[in-house]
Amino acid sequence: MSIVPVISFDNVCYKYDGDEIFQIDHISFDVFQGEVIGLLGPNGAGKSTILNLIYEILKPLSGAITISKLEKDKYISYLPQFSTLFNKLTIEENLLTVCNLFNIDSSTIEEQMDSIIKKLNLFSSRNKLFEELSEGQKRILNFLIMLIPNSPILLLDEPYNSLDIKNQDLINKKIKKLKEKNTTVLISSHIFEPMKDICDRYMIFDKGKLIGLYDKSSIIEKDIYTLLKEKILK
Fold it and tell me: For residues 136 and 157, what is the distance between their CA atoms, to the nearest angstrom?
């Protein structure tokens, strides 16, 4: 693991126009190459805003966000809470659109397509419209397509939503393989259980503040649900 942060927040603040309350309130932390970081907290805690700031959808009101030049020169892949694929395109057409967007060669496109269709078990439905898929199928398809550019940093916002245990496990297996390649992954979730075995560290957020930072061993020993109650309901 690199000793130089790939993502660094230094006293970062953010609030929406007209709001008096900060969505992100003087937050500082570092993320290192190859780490898998879990962002935990209730709805509205600021987890998604952190990811949006990293992806530069939002700009901080004050403070500094630094992404290492090596990583910034490549793509950062982002899985938002809601689908970014096209309802009126088929599975194949959505795959082709993304591959063409990233200038991926035709042989790789075919390989990616076969791999994703196989994982989704949709061999007989590859010409199905995206809007005709179940919510779980839509979610996992968004996730698998997001991996196509082989980005060095992945931002996952509530990736386990609408997924059964089998597909939650598929995501975790993918993340473990990416970690072996030194990919940096940030996972925002209000559900601890699916990601309890894959994160190196956990950040706990509430009301825009970073209220706890724990490594894997200490958070498991403490019991996350007790910890969340102590930190958020005190």
Answer: 15
